[in-house]
Amino acid sequence: MTTTQQALLTELEPVVEANLNRHLEIAKPWNPHDYVPWSRGRDFAFLGGQDWSPEDSQLDDVSKAAMIVNLLTEDNLPSYHREIATRFGPDGAWGQWVGQWTAEEGRHAIAIRDYLLVTRGVDPVALEAGRMVHMAAGYDSGDKSPIEALAYVSFQELATRISHRNTGRASGCPIAEQLLTRIATDENLHMVFYRNLVDAALDITPNATMQAIAREVINFQMPGSTMPGFAENAIAIAKAGIYDLRSHLDDVVRPVLRFWRVFERENLDGEGDRARDELAAFLDLVEEKASYYDQRREERLAAVAR
Predict the structure, then answer these.
(1) For residue 295, is pLDDT > 90?
(2) Buried residues in 115-131 as b, exposed as e (16+ CB within 10 A)
(3) CATH of domain 4-28+59-305
(4) For 164-175, how does the pLDDT look when each residue is reduced to its tens digit (9 = 90+)?
(5) pTM tops 0.70
(6) What pLDDT score does 103 carry?
(7) pLDDT tens digits, 193-245
(8) What is the distance between the alpha carbons of residues 63 and 93, in angstroms, rounded to a whole number?
(9) CA-based Rg of the chain, rounded to a whole angstrom?
(10) What is the model's pLDDT at position 2?
(11) What does the CA dihedral 292, 294, 298, 303 come to, rounded to 10 degrees?
């Protein structure tokens, strides 16, 4: 870490402490076991019961794909912890936040997996095989600077919230929707924490922060993009409207940029101004692509109706 990056972390520490205290006041504790319909559970063949068959699941194929992607993404928590712990350190308010965030995130995979196993929503053998492959590969965001990491998670946490929320709605199961809504609430609070830090960084080092924001928006990928079958599942999820380019643009990127007043700020010059212009041009391209996909979806729906 450079001296400049360390100086920014030090200057942001009071903001971290204030937002950590705010988070602890707002966040409500919850128990994963409360959201799982345990009465629907039964033994698998290893204990004398019956192994999973496709007829056991009440989820459609798209809901299965979305739940698996969401769960395997949450499974990689050890890698995510390493990513933020190495950038923000174990001490002071930064270290306290890293620990709090990790503990809260840990509930998500526990609850989703318990729900899927008890309800026999997906093939547990395939699910475990996918977990092993994905976690063994881990997650590496590269050489992101601390401010790039903060910008990335501001978008990623909100994207995860939208994905969980829409998966719950699409599942057709009130219990799954209740569970994923609870998880989405966590993700939203985490997004607010990171978003507020970037907002403060825009006042402290506006040009460097704007460059980081532009890079992360332009190169954004979900942390689960390397899992087995992600591309195929992502296409199915997008076609169903659970999470697509339109969702990413209108529900994730644009709201966060508006909060930061990216296109209204007057404290930019040089590289910061150029990065903002590059970001604006990129958003125009994404809008064109999203509109094209919107039209294609309407055409498919119309064809089905006919």
Answers:
(1) no
(2) bbbbbbbbbeeebeebb
(3) 1.10.620.20
(4) 999 999 999 999
(5) yes
(6) 97
(7) 999 999 999 999 999 999 999 999 999 999 988 898 899 999 999 999 999 99
(8) 39
(9) 21
(10) 83
(11) 60
- 157 annotated among ligand-binding-site residues: yes
Q: Is 187 one of the annotated binding-site residues?
A: yes
State mean pLDDT over 84-105. Answer: 96
- Give the ranges where 205-259 is alpha helix by DSSP (H): 206-218, 230-239, 245-247, 254-259
Return d(Cα 163, Cα 101) in angstroms, integer.
19
Domain ranges of the chain: 4-28+59-305
108 is in an annotated binding site: yes
Distances (CA, A) of 295 to 250, 299, 301: 16, 6, 10
The token duo for 142 is 């590269």
Tokens representing 110 are 């526990």
- For residue 100, how far is the Cα from the chain centroid? 17
In whole angstroms, what is the distance from residue 94 CA to residue 198 CA? 14
HSE on the CB side for 211, CA within 13 Å?
11
Please compute the mean of the pLDDT values over residues 52-79 and round it to a whole number: 96
Whether 17 has a binding-site annotation, put simply, is no
CA 163 vs CA 72, 148, 172, 226, 234: distances in Å:
13, 22, 15, 17, 11
Q: Which of these ranges, 16-30, 105-119, 222-236, has the smallest mean pLDDT?
A: 222-236
First and final C-alpha spacing in the chain = 60
Is there a binding annotation on residue 83? no
Q: What is the rounded average pLDDT for all residues in the chain?
A: 95
